[in-house]
Amino acid sequence: MPYRDSKLTRLLQDSLGGNSRTLMIACVSPSDRDFMETLNTLKYANRARNIKNKVIANQDKASKQLAILRQEIMQLQSELMEFKSVSLLTCDCNVTCPV
Fold it and tell me: Which of these, 41, 38, 42, lies nearest to 29 by C-alpha position?
């Protein structure tokens, strides 16, 4: 049975495919009468262990846009400060300089 068709996988869907750490504990029994259940549990745990996800930090569009705008503001402020310093150095002393 593929791991994606398991009810347990559906319950753990956010943990297995989301942005979180997941710890799986497999309960097994040394008893002969529980052999098949233990074997199925170990097979499932092995398949779940082999799931690899690409982690992406949760970030909504508004906060991403705010970060871009803040970066642009900082860039424009640095350009403005550079422009002011250059205009003060090249200013003619006989003329009133706009600052």
Answer: 38
